[in-house]
Amino acid sequence: MSLLRTLANRLPFHSIRSRMLLIALLPALLTEFGLVAYFTSQSLDTAERTLLARADNAARHLGDALTYALVSGDTALAHVLLAAEVRNSQLAHARVLDRSGNIFASQGRLPAADHVVRRVSISLPRAELADEVLYAAETPAVPSMLGQVEVSVTRDAVEAFTRAALVHAVLLMLAALTLTGMVAWRLSDRLASQLNHIGRVVARLARDDLSVRTHLPVQGEVGQLAAGVNNMADALLAQRTQMEARIQAATADLAAKKDMAERANMAKSRFFAAASHDLRQPLHALTLFVAALKARNRQAETQPLIDNIESSTAAMELLFNALLDISRLDAGAIEPHPVHFSLGRLFADLNKQFSALAADKQLSLRFRCNAPVLYSDPLLLERILVNLVANAIRYTDDGGVLVTCRQRGRMARLAVYDTGRGIPEDQHESVFQEFVQLHNTARDRSKGLGLGLAIVSRLGRLLGHRVGLRSRPGRGSMFSIDVPLGDPALIRAPSPPASPGKMPADALVLLIDDETAILRGMAELFDNWNIDLVTAHSAAEAEHWLVSLERAPDVIVTDYRLPDDDGLAAITRLRQHFGRDIPAILLTGDTAPETLQRITQAGLPLLHKPLRPAKLRALLTHLLQQARAADVG
Questions:
Q1: I want to staple 340 with a disulfide (CB 3.0 to 4.6 A). Which of 16, 46, 278, 490 is the partner?
Q2: Going from the N-terminus, what domains does the chain have, and what CATH number goes with each?
Q3: Cis peptide before 27 (omega within 30 of 0)
Q4: Phi, psi for 53 (deg, rounded to 5)
Q5: Could you tell me whether strands 145-153 and 93-98 are parallel, antiparallel, or unpaired per DSSP bridges?
Q6: Torsion angle of alpha carbons 169, 173, 174, 176, nearest 10°?
Q7: If pLDDT is split at 50, 70 and 90, which confidence band does 139 have?
Q8: For residue 416, what pLDDT is reported?
Q9: Cα(402)–Cα(416) distance, integer angstroms
């Protein structure tokens, strides 16, 4: 059993080899143990009986041999007979007792507790006494009981035989177990090596190496297992080949569709940018002509007509600016500048902006604020709230609009509630897409272009503020935006607005644009402002006129798209020609994201067509005053 424990400790029982060894050794061990135990016990019994028989034989032999010595009283003869019997029969001791129990003769040591003792009575046969001539006349009658002989033997020989028998039995068991183990080990080693080979093949198959195969004969169960593994590998290889072919076909189809979609998207973007630019150009010229006409008009009866034209162009400008905001956000041309600011002032501005519009529709407009200081970009956040409040008023026919701000831990939730028509739950995501208007199927321009919520969604992502929506059709909607709370101690006092100042009288402005109508409109506008203007269709033409005037312009105003090059190249060319960093303004009606990114990276002031003349004049005044201050310094 100790051998089994040793094998159990050294060999894991989950292996085939250990199980085969256990199956082979356990029956052999049990069988050998039974046989050894049986034969050993038989041998021990035989040794015990032999010992007892030797003692009995020695006692009977002495009993017969000592009769004469007891009768004659010859102790010397008794000692000789006892010594011979002790030596021949390997007795521990032997002695003779007379009829009185006295020791007549003795040989060897006294018997111990573990000795086997045997006693035999010594008697004189009566027939022999009657026929004996020696005693016939002189001895009348001799009693038949002469005495006793006592012998003992030790168990040392039996114990030595027992030890030797056990040692031989153990050696025999070890030899048998060793032989059995060697045979079982040889058989298990062959089986284990075959199974390990199959296991390594399966492991490589699991690592997607489908080219590996087993190389075992197909005879027997292991061979059938190996053949099954090979069949499985063949099936996996065929399936992977088919799957790869399908994946390649699907990938090629997907790549073709993706390429088609990208080309369509690029074509749409180019078309949208071109259409936006081409539409902005005449609108820009119209805005300039309306501004010039309004400045020159002296007849009261034509003033309402001019005002209506100006209102229409302003509405068109508003729609184009919404498209521009989407393009700028997609192009990443808008960067947030978060500060700590008071929300009360923002709510007051919104109230002033929308109170009249709400009153016209007989709607209530209320503002409630419980978190007065926020941390965000106030201009972009105001743009979000402007779109949300405008939408709420636009799609509410009865009731009112409530704008709230409630603190939620370290965040504040701005929410715009309305009692309008509501939005179905399955449309909550689509309303944040471009040109989606659920309640304007007729595309009424007075209800917007469907870009307000798209701008809100993009601005929310830009600022990192979560935008939420809850709505019940027929009951109203709630748009929310989560904004971090600010620190009142970090609010910066607003700087006083700078005075617009006056345009220098001797200023010369260069205008480059390939549209003749725009050049004429700008010429009329600058004439009303009493500002000297040089117009050109290209950078080369501008350079020609300036050389003839022998003067460098104080400010360059150029369109981004020019026939020979773009506006950035024109500005660079003129600055290099005159050897100075002339202030410049870029005008564009282009809304392509890559164009906006390039202009933003150039770091030049940018005005989008159609532009407001007042904004252009303010920027010109600022640049001219800044340039004159630098020259003086």
A1: 490
A2: 2-159 (3.30.450.20), 334-490 (3.30.565.10), 508-632 (3.40.50.2300)
A3: no
A4: -65, -40
A5: antiparallel
A6: 140
A7: very low
A8: 92
A9: 6
